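Sample intake sheet
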Amino acid sequence: MTPPATASDEVIALRADGPVLHVTLNRPAARNAMSLAMVEALRQVLAGAETDGRTRVLVLRGAGGHFCAGADLKDMAAARMAPRALGEDPVAAVNARFGELCVAYASTPLAVVAVLEGTVMGGGFGLACVADVALAAPSASFRLPETALGVVPAQIAPFLVERLGYSQARRLAVTGGRLDAAEALTIGLVHAVHADDRLDAALAAVLRDIRACAPGAIAATKALMAKARFVPPADLVAEATAVFSRAAQGPEGLEGTTAFLQKRPPAWAQ
């Protein structure tokens, strides 16, 4: 089923395939540079997907052979020229909206898959870092240009450290980070690189694997793992026990174990 047309269709394109929502950044003439309109559209799409009762996976991709060339500099220029109301900083407000987008996609209970081709720069680099699964084509070219432009990858930095570790994140920041697909795979930025003619098949295989897992179990696992980054394992034993018990005694746990014993796919995988 195709979602109804919205005002966001100018900057993103949507296609639903059962529980999978394909979200395409749709400004190919600008290599899908992320305007404020696109940021808002991506946030609206995520909020809708989290509450529509059917979407389990979001696939992020770019139109025209590129993923995303980062922030649209026209928006930043307009923010610099905007009059300041009392206590307001227009530039900070623009930056915060992108940071809130990254946080929303990083913390969603849905599975997020990024398919990365061509330019993956700045904010696009950040979106790649928050995806649960990142697949790249050989054409993918990663760049962290902020420091070379005299600015700071402020909202991206925490996700760089989370994805790549402190040492690699520092290296990329101080060198204006340039990576090809093979280098991105080596440092763990992406999880697999596939030839152009195999990329769609690889995506289909990942989606099959995700759909074979229970959506509630995925959400609970993501939440527990997010907390585990900052809490010692010993301090999580009681909470992890409660999470497991709820899952095992809930409808997904009962269906999953029953399906296993009956040697059939669980209901969510059919």
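Comment: The domain at 215-269 is CATH 1.10.12.10 (Lyase 2-enoyl-coa Hydratase; Chain  A, domain 2). The two ends are 17 Å apart (CA to CA).
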